[in-house]
Amino acid sequence: MEFDRELLEEVLRTSLSGGGDFADIFIEQTDSSSVRWESGTLRDIHAGEICGAGIRVITGDSYAYVYRSNPTEAALRSLAAEASRASGEGREVQLRSLEDCTPQLVHRIERDPAAADIAERLEYIRRADTAAREYSAQIQDALITLTDVEQRVTIACSDGTYAADRRVRTRLSVNCIARKGDQMERSGYAPGKAMGFEFFDSFPPEFTALKAAESACLLLDADYPPQGVMPVVLANEFGGVIFHEACGHALESANVAKQASQFHDRMGKRIASAKISASNDATLPNEWGSYHVDDEGVPAERTQLIRRGKLVSFLTDRIGARKLDHPLTGSGRREFYAYPPASRMSNTFIEAGKSTFDQMVSGIDYGLYCRKMGGGSVHPSTGEFNFAVNEAYLIEHGKITRPVKGASLIGKGPDVLKKIEMVGKDLSIGAGMCGSVSGAVPAGVGQPAVLVSQLLVGGRT
259: exposed, middle or buried (C-beta count within 10 Å: 0-12, 13-18, 19+)? Predict the structure, then answer.
């Protein structure tokens, strides 16, 4: 779905004809595929397509947004007239000619998923299913889903920005069910990258399946956890979900501008342990949350959020940058064209430190090692959280001992940041989907292993 630049300039001119300071057009075509496998057989094949466009007119720090599916040239002209009528009176704007601002290609796709047939997709799934079942006779079933998405976007703005991006992502999810007598446990692993099917060179189906099967079987022999305040070691990769949920959202300008963030007045001040530096980086090659330009046509960048414990930046979209008088960070994102963009995280992580995992564990007389985090809830304005732990172990006299299940971590994001005493070298980033005001978007969450000196652990006794 392509429109020539002369038409887009005409549409932008019409959009601003009734007033407004800035206008942009977002055009999208997304193709997705999903293959689901359960109980050793193919359960579902789904292919979907999203095709649409949205036009936004910004006046001051407010905006009007209109959109339509399957747009034609006539439809774009009609949308522009509608946006113009909906916008308020703004200053007179000199529309600039569109110039290509697309950054140099970084996230290269080696094996296009669109070229793979169902037989190839099923082969990856069967390999995962076989590996899971061969791991142990305790594995009763494997639920496997292979998904791939290709999103093509074009953004044209009244400031002359013209940018395009192709975003391809592949993910394999394996959930294993283990059984021992009447007891059943379930655990999963779901890596994903902004890659084509070369993804399977780095994450073979067998690797993903064994991670899920091992965890499910381990839970069969796990005890329930102790309760109380204790030292906690959070593993790398998806351990970063606590930072993402309890702190990252509070650094998005959409929350900061409304003062719905505990950090809205903390710029330049210490909000974390001096051991902590944290960044948001959409430029990481082929990482799950990466892109070349955001959904407002702004080039992706690496933004350091916290430097040695001090808050140094927020994440902004165009509206947030206006409201906060803060630089743009290329963080305007949306699920698809029906949503106006908002400031969102891409790949957000605590940066690597200097400690080793053994150093963290050896100094703990009694505590908890959280190897795999689960879901949770967070109060956005205070950072209060409650997260489930899917896989954990006791730490006793400086050694990791028995597995435990059913643990939860309870606390406040700002407090946890201040209580991190050691930061590991083993930075890794996991794949997740993040929901917020502009829908669900792919987001990388990560960290190295970290030691929190005191954290409340809950769970069944």
Answer: exposed
**Contact in structure between 349 and 447 (CB atoms under 8 Å):** yes
CATH number given to 5-100: 3.30.2290.10
DSSP class of residue 297 equals S
Which residues face 432 on adjacent strands?
A: 443
pTM of the predicted model as reported, rounded to 2 decimal places: 0.95
In the chain, ranges of CATH 3.30.2290.10 domains: 5-100, 113-149+168-220
Q: Is there a contact between 233 and 395 (Cβ–Cβ < 8 Å)?
A: yes
The domain defined by 113-149+168-220 carries CATH number 3.30.2290.10: yes
First to last CA, the chain: 58
Tokens of 83: 């946006």
Amino acid identity of 202?
S
Is the pLDDT confidence value at 412 over 80? yes
Kindly tell me the burial class for residue 44, based on how many C-beta atoms sit within 10 Å of its own C-beta (0-12, 13-18, 19 or more): exposed
Question: Each residue of 98-109: pLDDT tens digit?
Answer: 999 999 999 999
Instruction: Using a pLDDT cut of 90, give the percent of the chain over it.
Output: 91
